Each structure stands twice: as structure tokens, then as C-alpha cells.
UniProtKB/TrEMBL annotation, chain A:
Keywords: Membrane, Transmembrane, Transmembrane helix. It comes from the Bacteria. It comes from Cytobacillus purgationiresistens. The keyword Thylakoid does not apply. This is ABC-2 type transport system permease protein. The keyword Transmembrane helix applies. The chain crosses the membrane at residues 21-40, 60-79, 100-125, 131-151, 163-183, 208-229.
From TrEMBL, chain B:
Coiled coil: none annotated. Keywords: ATP-binding, Nucleotide-binding. It comes from Cytobacillus purgationiresistens. The lineage of its organism: Bacteria, Bacillati, Bacillota, Bacilli, Bacillales. This is ABC-2 type transport system ATP-binding protein. SMART domains: LytTR.
Amino acid sequence: MNLRLIRVLLLKEIKDLIWNGQVAILFVTSILMILVFFTFNQLEFNLPGHSITMFKGIPTTLSFIVLLVTMYVQGNLMVEEKEQNTERLLGLIKVKYINVFISKAIVTYILSYLLFVLAMVIHGYSFENFITASFFTIPFFLMFLFLGTIIAEASSNTIEVSLYGWPIFIVYFVIEGLIYSSIESRFFYLFPNYHIERGFSLIEHGEFLAVFNYIYVPIIWMFIILFFLKKRRKNSKTILNSGFS
Amino acid sequence: MSLILKGFGKVLKNKEILAPINLTIKVNEIVAIQADMEHMNAFLSLVEGKRSYITNEIMMNEQSLQGCEDLFIYRPDMGEYKRLTPEQCIQFWCDLYKVKINIDNVLALTELTHIRNKKNKHLTFSEKKRLQFARSLVQNTSIFIFQEPTYQLDLQSKQVFNRVLNEILKNGGIVIVFTSSLEEGVRMATKVFRLNSRGLQEVELGDEGEKEAEVKEDETDSLIENDTVYQRKFEKISAKSDDKYILFDPLEIDFVETRERQTILHVNNEEFYSTVSMKEIESKLIPYGFYRCHRSYLVNLQRVREVVVWSKNSYSLTLDKGNEQTVPLSKSRYGELKAFLNW
């Protein structure tokens, strides 16, 4: 890891991002979705013996942000080096992959976090809720940063990133739908969605320390995806120096 | 100071990918290597790899180099960040290479000043290439390798490239230019080599070599003349194509070139291998308005549209529109042609 290089690459990324139409569309769409989710979340339907709330407030919004922004933006930014053939120069001057990854991940994380903050403000989170939620979601955000990077590794352009991202998007929301349904199964404990939903329930009830009981599964998922990313990098034939050293 | 390539080559399984190269390039020297894509890429991938540096196949002043980060390498497929401007791109390279230079000067030298704030994706092909050339003025190194730098470039950008080369030489650089066009190589370089499966061979360029070769050709011709006592009336130039001979009207021919000891007729962008020597063709074609502009080239002056002066020592002739091929013009022939055409 080279801090000077990361700073240089980050500066370039910020200049480049200002005019990045794809990222702008994803960002604006996410803002709209945050508002839509919030509006629907306020509606409540009362049926005999049941009270139905549409969407699970912050957990659903967060899922949408990590998929649409964290995963896709990271995937797009990473694949662009390949698509524009700019990675050749970086490879020639021995810029390590980890430096490129970190510079892009910082930009993606900031964008995702800004949206998450906006969602928390709209949903009326207190400062304590806000701080706890920020720490609690770190492995979740990292997991999707790694996932976006894996997609970029498998793709050769931004179109392919969009294409490969969709199955993940659909599967994730199907699982989320099952978890939020009335079906109860221990099988759901395996998925990060369940733990994120549980964690946010505790944050909303002010049980800040208990929240971190639900951080382990997202951390395990984060490491599983990191393992696959490292494996993918080992077999990668891209010009940038391989390895997350 | 010199760059030394010693036994620089590669064998893969039972196939020789690149025959061993032994070459010394001195400072302020531009070496052009004419090669096909396969050999160019084999050479460049070796330069970009680690092995040659570990085994001391590439050395600078008898000292081994660390790796390709010590070299400037230009490949035609190198891209640029499409949403950055040329100015931001150069600033990024300066930060990347840890150098401080006057960006305005670099932009002016590469004629990018007027588009300094235009996004790279809106630049033309030639402007993008000029931006890549600007990188060579940023990187702090003395070895510069360019692959096909002038391929499909406009005249303005070729002149910019010439200026960039002069700037590199001014700072004591060593330049290797890979090109598929021998004419371009002759125009740009002080030494020209040909790289193929047999290895690296030097193409003789200098006026001395030219004179020597002419003397040799004269000797051969005098022997022929001694045997041939009758005078032949001549109207056609013959070339062999597969199993037939094609007879060309002299004025159909754009120019004649000698390559690897073979005489090639260029007719309407097509190449035909002639059965007679350059000297013989020259004597036949001079009455038809042909001119020996270079040791290896005989050009039809009726086809010449432009005489391009690249620098004090580098000239070329551009043929008519619809053809637009370039033919090198020797330094020694420039004055003669100027007087001959009276411009």
C-alpha cells in the first residue's frame, strides 16, 4: 500500500467522477428511492388482526444503496481502467492493484455513506443511532465493495458489470422478501439481510451494545467474498500487479 | 551513456519467439526498428516483463535496470481517462511520476493548448495521440520506446511527434521507435533496423553507404553492359505475380522500393515484386520523370504532391491524394531535387 499513490489516484477519481453520468444516474436514482421508501414506509394498512407496513424502513433502503451504489459504482469504476485501457500505464509503473482498489473504494464508500446518512436523517435517527448504525454497517458496505470488484474482474466493460450485477440484485431482494415475510426458518440466519434487519431493530430500540451480536454474520460474508476476490485476482491476467499485499 | 541489449530474446517451448538481439544505442540516438506486429509485441512484452532485467539482458551504462518503470513505453492501445481534460491528465501524470514541470510548455509543445479544457472523449484520434506523446515529456527517464507512434496520424501530429523527439534528444534521451513502415523509420531515425524471425539487421542509410552501394551496382552493371552489345528499346517494367509476369506502363508506377534485396513496384497501393534490379529500373524510368530520392526509393515525380520538411535532416515526399503514401527523401538529395523542381 502506497499512501502517496492512493492520494494521487483518489484526486484523479474525484475529478473524473464529477462528469461520470452513470454514477450520477445511480446516485440520483438512489435519492429518489430513499424518498419513495420513506413515503411508503409511512403508510400502514390495517387488516383484521394484522398491521402491514410497506418496506422495512432503513434496512430496505440500505440494501438498495449497497446494491445500486456500492456494488455498481465500485464495479463501474474498477472496470473502467480495463475498458479505457488506462490500467496498462498503471501496470507499467508498478502501481499495485490494492492502491487502485482503495482509491476507488474510498470514493464509492463516501457516495454510499452520504446516501445512507441522508436516509437516516429522513427516517429521523438520533445521533446515537446514527453512530451505531455507521459502525454496524461497515462490514456490510465492505462486502458489497468486494462484490463490485469481483464483478469488475469478471467483466470487460461497464455494460457487462450491469449485466452481471442483476442476478445478484434479484437474488438478494428475493432473500430479503423471504426474510421479511411471515415464514420463519433458521436457514435465514445464514444471510446478512436477516442480521442487518435485526441489528437495525435493536438500534431503533436503543439497544446499542446488543446490536453488535448481529455483526458477525456480515463480517463472515465479507471475508468469504474477499476470499473469492483474492482467488479471482490470482487467476487474473490483467496488467496491474496482482495481490492484495 | 548507452543502452545495451545483450542476447535479448525469447524462446517458448520449441519456438523462437524473438531471435537474440545484440544492440547498443548511444545517447541522443533515435533507432527505428521496422517489424511486424508479432515481433514488435514479442520485443515489448519482454521489455515489460521482469526476466530481461534480472538476467541483465537490458543494461544502461553497464548497470542493470530495475524494470520497465525505468523506461518510457508508448503503446498505440494505451488509453486515456475519457472524462479528464488534457491538462488534468498531464497533471495526473506529473503526480504519478513525482515530477514538477511547466504544464503550459508541455501543452504548447504538443499543440494541445487550445483544447486543454476539452474532455478527452471529445478529442480527435490525432489529438489523443499527441496527449500520449506529452507523457514522454513528463516521465523522468532517458530511455523512450514508442510503438507505431505515427500510424494513421495527421501531418500536424507527425510534426508534433518530431518536436517531441527533438526535445527528448535535447535532454539526452535514447529513443527506440517501432514501426511497420520502413519509410517512417527512415524519416525519423538516425539508425534503422529490421526485426524479423532472423533477428535484427541494420538497414544501411547513410550517404557513404549509398555511394558504396551505387559503386557496387555500377560495377555489376558494367559487367552486364560488356556482355550486352546491342541496345534494347524499352517500354514496360515487368513484375512477377504468382505464376505470371505483369508488364507495367512506366507511368502507372507510383514508386519503386528495394526491400530485403528485392525490388518492389508500388502501383495503386499494391506491391509487385519486380524481376529486375533497382539500378536497371532507374536507368529505364528516369526518362519518364522518375527520381532516385533515396538509396532504396525511386519515385515518380508526377505523383509527388508535397515535399515535407520534418527537420534539418529529415524530409519526405507525399504522393497524390487518393494514394497519400510517403517516400523518404535523403538529406543529400533534397538540395538536388529542390534545384531540379525549381521551387
